[in-house]
């Protein structure tokens, strides 16, 4: 069966609102390290990791063996009504690594579920359904998670169980605060928060949920220290801080293990997902015990923290720490970021190369403006694939190429991918001229 046949079958049984990458969609059939192979036998360097999920690469022996050991027991599921040794061990590791004192952990299957659970805990703890969220954010596809998503392209319903007030993100390229210097943007964002609290809420707000770096939003982020400045105001009112670390966690930013640590603040709740399972469905919430204990009725997750996923999660975290992949993300990410900035400095179509560690983005605009150029972005995206490199897309306007390679990326692979990306950009810009 050809890929064209599979595509026809896909379209016949799956909804049209599930996007497929590329003009000619790919079927990936094998992977090893940082490379994947399609059904036609072509190999690609993977700079997107299944949307920042295969965090330590494909077919890692230590992870495969951990999962196979669990499979050999014959138990792939018991439910959390029974003790699960792998779950307890992983919760201990996550609690210790979170930086949150007296922490408890609740496991789910996805980032959406993790954020939904965090909102459940915060609203119960504060006895309020009022939420602060950030413009251009993305937190998931359930009703509450969509309700705090500040990106219209990902808000599939106007129905919302929450009352949400929106804050400026403090991004550097466009928007009201972009006109200010970085230090002034923090002060302006704090003023904005105070005004929102005074004008858009009825008091007793439950929480602020924020991504340290906005993932789907195109790896946009405000100045370091913004979350701490916000939290000073939140603490005056007893409002909780939820740090959505679904994409920024586990050392991906290089400089810190969690994105929140760049801000000099500790959140009350932290959500995680994606990379911790390296492809196995694993996510969760970690936070202060008194907040997690605020849920007033029985609640559990049938598949969350199951023996297979937590076996993988334990192996992933052990591998991550044993190989100091955070340091590798900083070192190899710098090769990419510095190389991209140097190679595109003369291109008016490149508005910004941004990000941290192995969480990098390139934003494309029409020359002399900050008007998004989604068409050019698509050409670059397709040209990368033609050159043997898989990247992602994103941003509020679809004009951002995103990269989230496995944290095991080597320096040689970084340079290889950089060369393909630079050539794709220059060829696409030339085509547009």
Plain-language structure description:
With 433 residues, the protein is α/β, with parallel strands linked by helices. The protein is built from 13 helices and 15 strands. The protein has helices at 3-13, 49-52, 61-72, 85-98, 111-126, 143-147, 182-200, 226-237, 289-292, 307-322, 325-344, 374-386, 411-432, and strands at 28-32, 35-38, 43-46, 103-108, 130-134, 163-167, 207-210, 240-244, 269-272, 283-288, 350-356, 359-364, 389-390, 392-394, 400-403. It has a 7-stranded mixed beta sheet with strand order 4-10-9-8-7-5-6, with helices on both faces. Strands 1-2-3-13 form a 4-stranded mixed beta sheet. β2 and β3 form a beta hairpin. α7 (182-200) packs parallel to α8 and α11 (325-344) runs parallel beside α13. The longest helix is centred in the C-terminal third of the chain and has 22 residues, at 411-432. The radius of gyration is 21 Å and the shape is globular. It comes from Micromonospora maritima. It is an enzyme of class 2 (transferase). Keywords: Aminotransferase, Pyridoxal phosphate, Transferase. GO terms for molecular function: transaminase activity. Its cofactor is pyridoxal 5'-phosphate.
């Amino acid at each position: 069966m050809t890929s064209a046949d599979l595509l026809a079958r896909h379209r016949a049984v799956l909804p049209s609102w599930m996007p497929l990458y590329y003009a000619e969609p790919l079927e990936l059939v094998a992977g090893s390290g940082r490379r994947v192979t399609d059904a036609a036998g072509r190999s690609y360097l993977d700079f997107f990791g299944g949307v920042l999920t295969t965090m330590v690469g494909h077919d890692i022996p230590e992870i495969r063996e951990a999962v196979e050991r669990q499979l050999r027991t014959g138990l792939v599921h018991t439910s959390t009504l029974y003790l699960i040794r792998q779950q307890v061990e992983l919760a201990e590791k996550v609690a210790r690594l979170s930086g949150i004192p007296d922490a408890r952990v609740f496991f789910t299957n996805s980032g959406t579920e993790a954020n939904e659970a965090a909102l459940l805990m915060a609203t119960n703890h504060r006895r309020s359904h009022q939420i602060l969220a950030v413009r251009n954010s993305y937190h998931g596809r359930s009703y509450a998670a969509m309700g705090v998503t500040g990106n219209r392209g990902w808000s599939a319903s106007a129905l919302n169980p929450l009352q949400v007030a929106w804050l400026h993100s403090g991004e550097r390229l466009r928007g009201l605060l972009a006109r200010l210097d970085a230090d002034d943007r923090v002060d302006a964002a704090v003023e904005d928060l105070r005004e929102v609290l005074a004008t858009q809420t009825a008091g007793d707000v439950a929480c602020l949920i924020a991504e340290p770096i906005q993932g789907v939003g195109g790896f946009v982020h405000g100045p370091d220290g913004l979350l701490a400045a916000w939290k000073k105001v939140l603490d005056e009112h007893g409002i909780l801080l939820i740090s959505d670390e679904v994409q920024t966690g586990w050392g991906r930013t290089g400089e810190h293990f969690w994105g929140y640590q760049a801000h000099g603040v500790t959140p009350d709740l932290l959500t995680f997902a994606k990379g911790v399972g390296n492809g196995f469905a694993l996510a969760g919430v970690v936070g202060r015990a008194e907040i997690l204990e605020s849920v007033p009725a029985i609640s559990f997750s049938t598949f969350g923290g199951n023996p297979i996923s937590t076996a993988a999660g334990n192996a992933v975290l052990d591998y991550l720490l044993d190989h100091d992949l955070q340091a590798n993300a900083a070192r190899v990410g710098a090769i990419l970021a510095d190389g991209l900035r140097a190679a595109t400095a003369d291109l008016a179509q490149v508005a910004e190369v941004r990000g941290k560690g192995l969480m990098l983005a390139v934003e494309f605009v029409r020359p002399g403006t900050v008007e998004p150029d989604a068409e050019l972005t698509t050409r670059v995206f397709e040209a990368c694939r033609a050159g043997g490199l898989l990247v992602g897309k994103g941003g509020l306007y679809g004009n951002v190429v995103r990269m989230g390679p496995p944290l095991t990326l080597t320096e040689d692979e970084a340079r290889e991918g950089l060369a393909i990306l630079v050539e794709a950009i220059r060829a696409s810009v030339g085509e547009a001229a």
